[in-house]
Design goal:
- The longest helix has 18 residues.
- A five-stranded parallel β-sheet has the order 1-3-2-4-5. A four-stranded parallel β-sheet has the order 7-6-8-9, sandwiched between helices.
- Helix 3 packs across helix 6 and helix 16 crosses helix 17.
- Helix 12 links the parallel strand 4 and strand 5.
- The termini are far apart.
- The protein is globular.
- Among the domains are: 113 residues, Fumarate Reductase Iron-sulfur Protein, Chain B, domain 2 (Orthogonal Bundle); 141 residues, Rossmann fold (3-Layer(aba) Sandwich).
- It is of the alpha/beta class and 418 residues long.
- The chain binds iron/sulfur cluster (2 copies).
- The site of one iron/sulfur cluster has 15 residues, from helix 2 and helix 5.
């Protein structure tokens, strides 16, 4: 694909600015009515979904130059999909997220690169992870666990921890806990340990499609060699890649793909995990963008004219994972869920996505603080989510702001109840 393939989307934008807001019939207060961290933070139309489409159109027609300032504006976006979900309430002929992805790919092709992203790519090429940590340490999070080594044995379920959970020492207990619960439930689970590599999700969103495809090939071959019938990941970014980007790139994993919140929910439903212990806690749930609206399954290529592609085959956010984590919370005695105002496909992003955490950390933490304010307004004691990138930036923001909200992963809360 190329920018030219999205000419109709860009020219079709009516500049109504609905992509900057939670859909009007979903708004509960002025305070939490906006949906785009980028345009709220920078307060200039170019930083909205619509503004980026106008910029892309201008570049396509040769009216604008793709210089460093324009690239900077293009990348100050979390790729959260909120603009797209809002636009699709009113329009069925614009695929906004696709335009944003194409714009980034165009930046890479044109050599308009962000230094921090280039550094991340270099680190990835050297160590196979976006954290720039030594590859040899990747499996340390699982030391002492009785999970199988899928490099030498087959397993029914393969657990792909992802880059951040593998290296972020504060978050490692979450994935250890998730695997411990799977083992306790009798699941035949294996991991790749230090041989696990990045899934390629982050660099795809940065526009480095060729490199992302290479990492996808690596994971596909590893899954196939493991014999796994189900691939489980605790990372929401990874989940969206496996569920949407891989099939779209033509990479067939040949197995069921589940986020760990879904898999643990299945174990609870089957009675293989029984939450018995009281966890007296009022919580609010943050829908990670890449588990929710960006985590919709890819529904196949459309052979007809792009403008005729049926709405049911477009990413509009409704088919993301929203109920499974809420059902797990509901199964835990003592837990009370109090919803925020912006939820499900209209959630406010944590701030960390799309390469923002790496290149513009202050902007990422600002967006996370906005979400913490919304969470605190519910009166809940804790914010619970299921994505290492969300948890990392929420913890950073809470430390900076002095927020008293406790931050948990869903697996942490479930483990307390067993
Ligand atoms: S992208 Fe969609 S919602 Fe935004 S201004 Fe254009 S038509 Fe309106
Ligand atoms: S993807 Fe998110 S941050 Fe980027 S323009 Fe859309 S709503 Fe704003």
């Amino acid at each position: 694909m190329a920018l030219e393939d999205y000419r109709n989307d860009m020219e079709g934008c009516s500049r109504c600015s609905s992509c900057k807001w939670v859909p009007y019939n979903q708004i509960k207060s002025w305070r939490f009515a906006k949906n785009c961290p980028s345009v709220v933070r920078h307060n200039f139309h170019s930083y909205s979904g619509s503004g980026r489409m106008i910029t892309g159109h201008s570049i396509l027609l040769g009216r604008s130059e793709l210089n460093d300032d324009v690239a900077d504006m293009i990348y100050k976006c979390q790729m959260c999909g909120a603009c797209d979900a809002a636009c699709k309430v009113y329009r069925d002929d614009i695929d906004l997220t696709e335009v944003l992805l194409e714009l980034r790919a165009h930046c890479v092709e044109s050599g308009s690169l962000i230094v921090e992203h280039m550094m991340m790519l270099d680190a990835l090429k050297a160590e196979d992870n976006v954290m720039g940590e030594p590859k040899a340490k990747r499996g340390e999070w699982a030391e002492g666990l009785a999970a199988k080594d899928i490099n030498t044995e087959t397993a029914e379920v393969m657990f792909h921890a992802g880059c951040r959970y593998s290296y972020d020492e504060e978050l490692r207990p979450t994935v250890r806990g998730a695997v411990q619960m799977m083992l306790a439930a009798g699941v035949d689970v294996g991991i790749a340990g230090k041989e696990e590599s990045c899934c390629g999700a982050r660099i795809y969103e940065l526009g480095y499609r060729g490199e992302a495809a290479n990492y996808a090939d690596d994971l596909v071959s590893r899954v196939k060699a493991s014999g796994a019938k189900t691939l489980v990941t605790p990372c929401s970014d990874g989940y969206a890649a496996l569920k949407f980007l891989y099939p779209r790139m033509g990479k067939d994993l040949g197995c069921e793909v589940m986020h760990v919140s879904q898999f643990l929910g299945r174990l609870v439903d089957e009675g293989r995990l029984r939450p018995r212990n009281e966890v007296p806690l009022s919580v609010t749930w943050h829908d990670p963008c890449h588990l929710g609206r960006m985590g919709e399954p890819f529904l196949g290529d459309w052979a007809g004219d792009k403008l005729e592609r049926p709405m049911s085959m477009k990413r509009a956010g409704k088919k993301g994972v929203y109920d499974a984590p809420r059902d797990v919370l509901a199964s835990i005695p003592g837990v009370e869920l109090i919803e925020m105002e912006r939820i499900r496909e209209y959630s406010w992003c944590c701030g960390a996505g799309g390469g923002v955490y790496e290149a513009y950390p202050e902007f990422a933490v600002w967006a996370a603080r906005e979400r913490l304010d919304e969470a605190a307004a519910t009166g809940a004691e804790a914010l619970v989510t299921a994505c290492p990138w969300c948890e990392r930036v929420f913890r950073d923001a809470a430390a900076e702001s002095g927020s008293s909200l406790e931050i948990y992963d869903l697996a942490d809360i479930l483990l307390k109840s067993l």
